[in-house]
Amino acid sequence: MNEDNGKLELIAFKSFASNPELIYIIDFLNKSLKEKKIMFGLTKDKEKNEMVINIYEF
Known about the structure:
By secondary structure, this protein is of the alpha+beta class. The protein has one helix at about 20-35; strands spanning about 10-15, 40-45, 50-55.
């Protein structure tokens, strides 16, 4: 976590067409980049049929 305030810092986000395969990509990125203090999140907007990838620094 960010040592200044104990929270994750959102550094970027991007929307994509909904695709269940994105879950596997996010999992791969989180496992691969954990040591670089980068974390990825994925949310789904069912109304827009989109998924949003969030990139955090901790």
